[in-house]
Amino acid sequence: MIINTKCGAIEGIDSPFNPNVEIFRGIRYAKANRFSLPVLVDKWEGVYDATNFKACCFQQRAFEDESKNPSKKFYYNEFRKDDTFTYSEDCLFLNIWREKNANNAPVLIYVHGGSFLGGCGNEKHFQGEKWCEKGVIVVTINYRLGPLGFLNVNEMQGNFALHDIMAAINWIEKNIKDYGGDCNNITLAGQSAGAIAVTTLLLSKKVNHKAILLSGGGVGHFMNPGKYSKAKVQKFWNKVVEKLNLNSLNEIYSVSVEKIFEAFKEVSKHHPIASFYSCSPYIDNYFLLDKGTKIFKNLKQVDTPCILSSTSEDIVPPILFNMNKKWTRKFANSYRAYFSINLPGDNKGAFHSSDLWYFFGSLDKCWRPFTEDDYNLSNLMIDYYSNFVKSSNPNFEGHNIWLKQTKDMSKVMVFNKNPYFGKINKCKLYLSLFGLHGKGEN
Fold first, then answer.
1. Residue 81, number of CB atoms within 10 A of its CB
2. Nearest to 107, CA basis, from 428, 390, 329
3. DSSP code of residue 234
4. What is the pLDDT of residue 432?
5. Are 300 and 414 in contact (CB under 8 A)?
6. Which residues 6+ apart lie within 8 Å of 171 measured at CB?
7. What was the pLDDT predicted at 283?
8. How far apart are CA 220 and CA 391, in angstroms?
9. For the CA atoms of the chain, what is the radius of gyration?
10. Are 326 and 320 in contact (CB under 8 A)?
11. Which helix (H) or strand (E) segment is 38 a member of?
12. 171 with 29: CB under 8 angstroms?
């Protein structure tokens, strides 16, 4: 199928899962030279081939077999096993799922997680068909990661990952009408690092769209956009450059990408904390003028509608849960959710990222023996979230229990096998700090 757009003609495909859904894979939204800012694409020659996913950003898994790495094997088996990916510095692509004949449809732009070190917009849990059935257009994006997304020495602008995400949003704002979308009704969503990125954009006031923040939304002492200053970040990256043994700094623009990742990996072993905060949003005097905690503290009441969620076996569940809670005190039109279900197939409970299978309605692409209850929960979650994307209110006829956060912060929307709006077992939440959490609820 070929359609005409402002950028030129583009060829997409019919979805193999739903004949009423069309997919445009691997649309180039911007171009960027190494350690340079992205430039939006506004035209292409001939018919653009959007029938196949394009390259994702180079990341450590491009240089090693992660199935044999004990620390990475779990998520490899969960989200990537048996799939094939290509890697490149030329990675600024996005993917669009739309219902056939979509017209002025609300848009969900999803920013993937992966600690700003890995991931892409076409891992097996990402699919938009179920959302399209609700009348929503879904967009997933690739952006630069790790040293390619954050390396900063001398006078570099830095935070290239954030600039890429911002460029993708701007491209969608300018072009989504050609795909049947409403540029005035966009919701940004992200999970983990993706949620931190969207949080940073909201704090910086570079965007004013609705937001869905999964397992990483809000601002806390540890997960804090702008934890490091540009000067502190540069101390870490200078060590990486020193490890490369370059004859001149200009060689940083031409040295092999594998050597850059090797140097980054080696320095990170000896400076893990600096590595973490140097590969996430830092104060750059563009997106962040100060530490996120300070910006948040001085922030006045905000009307931007948001949903914030975490899982019961998340990364330090009490911290993420309380970050969500603090955020909703500033954002008047906000809702909170808590995903707590023991996924079938192992005893990991509602682990970090487990909610994505349900959020995207992609359970049938997973190895786990999901039951009818799981599919029902996924359908309910998509009903709630898609209604939020459409109207800023997740509730719908017959399901009006999810209330906005008010002065009473004790109740949240709990997604388990018997969803309810109410209080959660905080004892179980805090026991997770000692490894005694209860592996989800049924």
1. 13
2. 390
3. H
4. 64
5. no
6. 29, 30, 40, 41, 94
7. 96
8. 29
9. 21
10. no
11. none
12. yes
Residue 307: partners with Cβ closer than 8 Å, 6 or more residues away: 211, 212, 213, 334, 335, 336, 337, 385, 388, 394
Buried b (16+ CB within 10 A) or exposed e, 161-182: bbbbbbbbbbbbbebbbebbbb
Q: Evaluate whether 278 touches 236 at the Cβ level (below 8 Å).
A: yes
Enter the tokens of residue 435: 């490894």
Mean pLDDT of 272-280: 95
Residue 87 burial (10 A CB sphere; 0-12, 13-18, 19+)? middle
Which of 220, 234, 112, 128 is CA-nearest to residue 181?
A: 128
Task: Please answer whether residues 368 and 344 qualify as being in contact, where contact means their C-beta atoms are separated by less than 8 angstroms.
Answer: yes
Tokens of 358: 């349900």
Q: Please give the pLDDT value at position 435.
A: 60
> Which residues pair with residue 87 across a beta bridge?
56
- For CA atoms 110, 406, 329, 427, give the dihedral sign: negative
Burial 363-398 (b: 16+ CB within 10 A, else e): bebbeeebeeebeebbbebbbbbbbbbbebebbbee
Q: Pull the structure tokens for residue 120.
A: 């892409």
What are 19-36's pLDDT values in tens digits? 999 999 999 999 999 999
> b vs e for 331-355, b when ≥16 Cβ sit within 10 Å of the residue's Cβ?
bebbbbbbbbbbbeeeeebbbbbbb
* Beta carbons of 197 and 162 less than 8 angstroms apart: yes
Prediction pTM value: 0.96
* DSSP assigned state of 154: T
CB proximity list for 227: less than 8 A, separation 6 or greater: 277, 280, 282, 291, 292
**DSSP E strands: which ranges in 327-423?**
334-339, 412-415, 420-422
CB distance 389 to 187 below 8 Å: yes
Q: In sequence order, what E strands does 196-246 have?
A: 210-214
Among 157, 111, 167, 144, smallest CA distance to 282 is for 157
* CB neighbours of residue 61 within 10 Å: 21
Token match 């097996």: residue? 124
Distance of alpha carbon 330 from alpha carbon 24, whole angstroms: 37
**DSSP per position, 60-128:** GGGSS-GGG-TTTHHHHHHHTTT----EES---EEEEEEETT--SEEEEEEE--STTTS--TTSTT---
Q: Which residues contact 406 (CB under 8 A, 6 or more apart)?
A: none
How wide is the angle at C-alpha 163 spanned by C-alphas 325 and 6, nearest 5°? 115
Separation between Cα atoms, residue 109 and residue 142, nearest integer Å: 11
Q: What is the pLDDT of residue 438?
A: 55
